Amino acid sequence: MTLVEACRAWKSVHGTLPAGLTLIFEGEEESGSPNLAPFLRDNADELRASLALICDTGMYADGRPAITTQLRGLMGEEIVVRAASRDLHSGNFGGLAANPIQVLVNALAGIKDDTGRVILPGFYDGVEELSNQLRAEWEDLGFDASEFLSRVGLKDPIGERGRSGLEMVWNRPTFEINGIAGGYAGDGFKTVLPAEARAKVSCRLVGTQDPQAIRAALQAHVRAHVPADCTVEFHPHGSSPACHMDVSDPAFTAARAALCEEWGREAAFIGMGGSIPVAGDFQRLLGMDVMLIGFGRDDDRIHSPNEKYNVESFAKGVRSWARILAALR
Amino acid sequence: MTLVEACRAWKSVHGTLPAGLTLIFEGEEESGSPNLAPFLRDNADELRASLALICDTGMYADGRPAITTQLRGLMGEEIVVRAASRDLHSGNFGGLAANPIQVLVNALAGIKDDTGRVILPGFYDGVEELSNQLRAEWEDLGFDASEFLSRVGLKDPIGERGRSGLEMVWNRPTFEINGIAGGYAGDGFKTVLPAEARAKVSCRLVGTQDPQAIRAALQAHVRAHVPADCTVEFHPHGSSPACHMDVSDPAFTAARAALCEEWGREAAFIGMGGSIPVAGDFQRLLGMDVMLIGFGRDDDRIHSPNEKYNVESFAKGVRSWARILAALR
Predict the structure, then answer these.
(1) What confidence score (pLDDT) does residue A52 get?
(2) Cα separation, B276 vs B261, whole angstroms
(3) Furthest CA-CA distance within chain A
(4) Radius of gyration, CA atoms only, chain B
(5) Which residue on chain B is closest to A184 by alpha carbon?
(6) pLDDT tens sequence across B286-312
(7) Are A293 and A255 in contact (CB under 8 A)?
(8) Ranges in chain A annotated CATH 3.30.70.360
(9) How is domain B73-127+173-240 classified at the architecture level of CATH?
(10) Does residue A116 register a pLDDT over 90?
(11) Residue of A308, A282, A284, A285 whose CA lies nearest to A297
(12) Which end of chain B lies in a sparser environment, N or C, as judged by fewer CB atoms within 10 Å?
């Protein structure tokens, strides 16, 4: 929105856009953008440009402007374990029949070890250490993981032992259980052994980790925990590799200076723990460099009830884009 | 119902009941009978009798009449693990913040070892081996666990290694996860770290296992898996010790003969994997012997959709009670 408004403002003042611009509106980002990649591929000749600008990112924690130079990828998977042909009474069958919740729980419990590392074979293939430049820039940010966590009622970073808080969220891969359901979990109690149990899990990916190889390793791990009497089904939910920008491109220097003019502070080069698969699509399918600049705040509660967008971010964000477009044209 | 109908039939033929009978109707058995025990205690003098007859049990697998001589007890517990003050985006917080589903899963995974034994300290205190008489009677039943399981699409008894199928369901304690929920498990996918996760678990108990001691051991085990950033809440759901009848009481011999007259086959002495807490209440609060005779079938689908009651069980069940009342008066 800030980028669109900047174009509108520029045109109302100058009567024309600052450069040859193609605007693409993507409404399926939260569901894995199934249609954008085919569209880019089908229209590559028309769409190819010197740079893709994406405004779906955030500022640095304390309101400092930021350019996002790397995004984690994502591998999402749903796991369904089935046992008996119907729910069973735990008095009649308990202790004798397979319980799919227990099978699922056993499969999911051991995926991370006591140091926070994922034990799936090959999981860390392609995971790269930070460059010296970015490590120094990130250290300068003075990120306080405990303070960051305190905003949501927590205090202890529980990621991989020996990693900084920013590495944990920006430059290290994860395994998380995003949802689990089985049997009866409502008010009261039902003494059932359910017929099935399911979980949704996802890995955030970095470097050149291969989502499909990790999906296969996860499936193999789960299958090894499923007894003969149970079946397991897998349903893929999204798959995108991580995305790293080349910060030596002069466009990054120009945009950094433009942001400094608007906000009075140097823009940080930051990572992003989330995924914007389309950034990688522009790189891979159109061979374009990508620059991600956005003005979201840490307290925007994204993907939570009462999500908001900051009004200052909107106004100064529009002005920022006008400055960046002027610097890049 | 069969017992009530037998009394009604007897009265319509003879004009009176076969003996001094007090009929008690209990509608809260599935929710732990919170009011029956106080009622029995408050009215003990009026209610005390030579024997309590309970008709809420089943026949032996192949339609053979049966007297249930032992019931497992129950300890039910709900576990709620909470982490952040709201659901978190797994991109922003994944790898850094505690995930309550993972905490819960880790706590529940190790409660049974690879041989099917529960590892909670003191769990097997009070668990008793079968008497020689019952072991011989149970062996004569020729129970085929794989055939039993095949009726619900399964085949492998997965209980404690080295135990027979009937021991697993009648004479060994269990730990089962009856329900689990956390995060988003509906259609599609949400990349959240949820604020909370919950599970309902229960143990079937045998011998003189103490439900409260086992509840305390379970809570201690779960607490040991909860990191400093999470909280855990426990909610009890039912608590009753196992119940064993004295089969040397002459009433058992008389009832066995009466059942044989009606069904043409000797009644089996069987156990029951489920719990009927009121049986223990009659024993403990009124000092009465209890005899459980019922006519439920294995395919009744109790506690499942499409539960039914067999018509032959109803008709011959009523006649059986008339014979038993005649034999006992």
Answers:
(1) 93
(2) 27
(3) 79
(4) 23
(5) B179
(6) 999 899 999 999 888 887 789 999 999
(7) yes
(8) 73-240
(9) 2-Layer Sandwich (3.30)
(10) yes
(11) A308
(12) C
What are the average pLDDT values for consecutive 10-residue runs of chain B, which has 329 residues?
91 91 89 88 93 90 88 96 93 92 97 96 97 93 93 93 94 97 93 96 97 98 96 94 91 94 94 87 91 91 87 95 92
Q: How high is the pLDDT of residue A62? A: 66
- Please list the residue range(s) of chain B that carry CATH number 3.40.630.10: 2-71+246-328
Question: By the CB < 8 Å criterion, does A31 face chain B?
Answer: yes
Q: Tokens for B22?
A: 């007090």
CA distance A225 to chain B (A): 11
Its pTM stands at: 0.88
| Start and end residues for every CATH 3.40.630.10 domain found in chain A | 2-28+65-71+243-328
Distance from C-alpha of B84 to C-alpha of B77, rounded to nearest angstrom = 23
For A69-126, the DSSP string reads: EEE-EEEEEEEEEE-SSS-EEHHHHTTTS--HHHHHHHHHHTTB-TTS-B-STTTTTT
Test B274 with A227 for CB contact under 8 angstroms.
no
| Topology of domain A73-240, CATH | Alpha-Beta Plaits (3.30.70)
User: HEC states along B141-184?
Assistant: CCCCHHHHHHCCCCCCCCCCCCCCHHHHHHHCCCCEEEEEEEEC
Contacts of A182 in chain B (CB under 8 A): 177, 179-181
Q: Where are the beta strands (DSSP E) in chain A?
A: 51-54, 66-71, 73-82, 88-89, 176-183, 192-193, 196-205, 231-240, 243-244, 268-272, 289-293
For the domain made up of B2-71+246-328, the CATH class stated in words is alpha beta
A2-28+65-71+243-328: CATH topology: Aminopeptidase (3.40.630)
Instruction: Give yes or no for B68 touching A (CB within 8 A).
Output: no
CA count, 13 A, side-chain hemisphere, A214: 31
Distance CA B17, CA B27 (A): 24
